[in-house]
Amino acid sequence: MESNGVEVAMYLHENTRKLDIMVGAKLKEEEETGWLAWGLNPGPEARMIGTQALIGIKTKNDEKLLKDTYNITSYTKLGCQLLPSPIDLNISNFNFIYVSKLKYHVILATIILPMKYDLSRLNQVWQVGINIGAVGNKELKMHGKGLMNYDSSETINLRTGKGRGNRVHESSKIRQMLFFKFKPGDRDEFRMYRNMFHHVVGYSLLIVSCINILKGIQIMHLDYTYWKPAYLGIVSCLAFIFLVFEIVSWFKFVCDKFGFWILCAKCIPNEEANEKKGSREDGRVQPSDTPINN
Q1: C-alpha–C-alpha distance, residues 85 and 70, integer Å
Q2: Cα 25–30–33 angle (5° rounding)?
Q3: What local confidence, expressed as pLDDT, does residue 95 receive?
Q4: Cβ–Cβ < 8 Å for 58, 33
Q5: Which residues contact residue 6 at a Cβ distance below 8 angstroms, ignoring those fewer than 6 apart?
Q6: d(CA 84, CA 137)
Q7: What backbone phi and psi angles, to 5 degrees, belong to 204?
Q8: Which carries the bigger pLDDT value, residue 259 or residue 174?
Q9: Collapsed DSSP state (helix, strand, coil) of residue 195
Q10: How many C-beta neighbours within 10 Å does residue 35 have?
Q11: What is its main location (predicted)?
Q12: Which of 6, 44, 220, 292 is the most exposed place for a label (fewest CB within 10 A)?
């Protein structure tokens, strides 16, 4: 199951570079219109711009199912009309059907992949939408702006069936295992550098994550007058708490490292106890050691 409730099945005839695809999704029944799209991007990344797409269109009350090819360009992202156009894929057996038993709309097609499409690194993109323009010219309107609408792409290895997400996840786990496996001991001279690396990477990821969320709010066109102040307020509170804990941690570290606990009032009783212990070892009798005669 992919994002947006879209399911994709592919079968590759590697000798002929022929790819059979079946893409299905449940378009919202409460909506009179809708569309389902799937395509390949020959560029270096799996993204919308540059995708050579096959799109099926559901018209009012499913009176007529339409289909066509679309070349998604940068003008589409700017809000220009998205109309049918030729693509650089050799398509055959292209159909858009409705399976009433499953309530699924399905795209079926056979594609002969040009040599510029890498079988071990194929960028696929899928999407669903609701609004369409005039039925006669098969114009499509912008898809939704939910989080899942911006996570509808994948780089897949057709020979193994593994997507980019699986490989990234596995490599991340391997890096974590190696990081802890070769963790220096407490007295190792490289321990300091490992800690520095750990802190720098951790702080950098926190900063990047905060910026990324802010960009996400902007991409999803949420109301900046409410979302931005609320988000910045939460981040500021967390940053203040983090700063307090960080100061306390560094203060404790410096005191432990250089013996500055004399600056801490809590340590004065400990020093008095140590002096008392030292006096006993010297043979001097403390007032508390004097026997009490009843």
Answers
A1: 5
A2: 65
A3: 97
A4: yes
A5: 23, 24, 25, 36, 38, 126, 127, 128, 152
A6: 8
A7: -65, -40
A8: 259
A9: helix
A10: 26
A11: membrane
A12: 292
Positive or negative CA dihedral for 160, 162, 163, 169?
Answer: negative
Looking at domain 3-164, its CATH superfamily turns out to be: Cellobiose dehydrogenase, cytochrome domain (2.60.40.1210)
pLDDT value, residue 77: 79
Find which of 34-43, 134-143, 186-195 is predicted with most confidence, using mean pLDDT.
34-43
What are the φ and ψ backbone dihedral angles of 216, each rounded to 5 degrees?
A: -65, -40
Beta bridge partners of 55: 37, 68
Residue 28 above 90 pLDDT? no
> What is the spatial order of strands in the sheet that 90-99 belongs to?
7-13, 18-25, 104-112, 90-99
Show contacts of 211-216: CB within 8 Å, 24+ apart.
216/147
Q: Mind listing the pLDDT tens digit for each residue in 197-224?
A: 878 888 888 888 888 888 877 766 666 7
How far is 47 from 103, CA to CA, in rounded Å? Answer: 28
Residue 166 scores a pLDDT above 70:
no
Q: Where are the domains of the chain?
A: 3-164
Greater confidence (114 vs 196) lies with 114
Pairwise CA distance, residues 107 & 128, whole Å: 12
Give the model confidence (pLDDT) of 139-162 as tens digits.
Answer: 998 888 777 787 889 999 998 877
- Cβ-in-10-Å burial (0-12, 13-18, 19+) of 51 comes to buried
